[in-house]
Amino acid sequence: MLVLGAVTGWSRSAIGTPTWAAWTIAALAICVGLPFAWAATPLGTRGATHLLLNAYRREGLEAAERQYLSRLAPRRAGLQLFNLALALERAGDQDGAHAVYRRAAECGFPPAMANLAYGLSRRGEEAEAQVWYHRAVEAGYTHEVPRRVDGE
To answer: CB-based contacts of 133: which residues, under 8 Å, 6+ apart?
Structure first.
């Protein structure tokens, strides 16, 4: 019901559909296995992150991925995992964020690769950090990537 309501809210606000059409779109999205179709909007992204965060806290990362991200393309799953890692980081769970950044990086999401590299560098794992920085750049990460992060 939560997903149904979120999809209808997205379709009503993003594309201005009448209520009956919004419910039809939501039902079709759920029937064809696209419960995160609404996640393309900022409100949808926050909602998807909230769902993932709750699932992560209840059941762990693997279960949350299996339940919510298994049908998404790897890059889209990486984006959702990246947002989850940011939420965990804001909540003060650095170890959890590090593990989720690693999963998002493994999905091929460049900002997650850079954040993982930064975290590895802060932990003193400089060799692996450099590998992830280079992968981020090769995958299209456009922000400046430091050669070495130490002394912080």
So the answer is: 113, 114, 117, 145, 146
Cα–Cα distance measured from residue 83 to residue 60, given in angstroms and rounded to the nearest whole number: 16
Region 28-43: what's the mean pLDDT?
A: 50
Half-sphere exposure of 103 (CA within 13 A, CB side): 22
pLDDT tens-place string over residues 86-136: 999 998 999 999 999 999 999 999 999 999 999 999 999 999 999 999 999
Closest CA to 76 of 51, 114, 53, 104: 104
Please report the DSSP string for the chain in residue order. -HHHHHHHHHHHHHS---HHHHHHHHHHHHHTT-TTGGGGSHHHHHHHHHHHHHHHHHH-HHHHIIIIITTS-HHHHHHHHHHHHHHHHHTT-HHHHHHHHHHHHHTT-HHHHHHHHHHHHHTT-HHHHHHHHHHHHHTT--S---S-----
pLDDT digits (tens, 9 = 90+) for 59-85: 999 988 888 888 888 888 899 999 999
